[in-house]
Amino acid sequence: MNAFTLSGWDNFFMASSGAAAALAGLLFVALSINLSRILAIPGLPARAGETFVPLAVVLIISLLGLVPGQGIRFLAFELLGLGGSAWIVASFLELRAVRSHHFKEPIHVVVRIGINQPATLSVPIAGLSVLIGFPGGLYWLIPAICFSFAGAMFNAWVLLVEILR
Q1: Strands (E), 24-159
Q2: Which helix (DSSP H) or strand (DSSP E) does residue 140 occupy?
């Protein structure tokens, strides 16, 4: 597996796409089961969106990484565009939540930003790294995907279980 070629990344992308799809399904189950409660609590609908964005990005990245014959530079441009867009959306949602005082404790802000920023920001960094030869290359996708999954599991727990307390 090389950070600057697509060879050897197939299994990683296949596993990531399957896990992202499963977690997105869990998120939709959580939303459908507790929709009225989620809509009644300020900030939770945005939190659900904040959870969905990184999962969708992981799924799309993983599928793009599996496109036969696609060059690494083309994938790098896709990572820049998709990752940059996801980072802007996630940052907007987080900023709006902070301004609206949707957090009960200051640690909640730190945890959500500490999970979501690396999840979204690592994607365009991976693209840029591949394009300019900056160290890391596609290995920047590993923290992006791991943080995306950690955030999704944490938020799915909140939307499924903690909301009932």
Answers
A1: none
A2: none
Return the amino acid letter for 109. Answer: V
How high is the pLDDT of residue 123? 97
**Containing domain of residue 125, as a range?**
10-164
pLDDT at 107 > cutoff 80: yes
Which of 54, 70, 53, 75 is CA-nearest to residue 147? 54
Burial class (CB in 10 A: 0-12, 13-18, 19+), 8: exposed
Q: Quick one: DSSP state of residue 164?
A: G
Count of domains for the chain? 1
Average pLDDT taken over every residue of the chain: 91
Q: Is residue 35 part of a domain?
A: yes
Cα–Cα distance measured from residue 37 to residue 100, given in angstroms and rounded to the nearest whole number: 19
Asked whether 146 and 102 are in contact (CB, 8 A), the reply is no
CB 121: neighbour CB atoms within 10 A?
A: 20
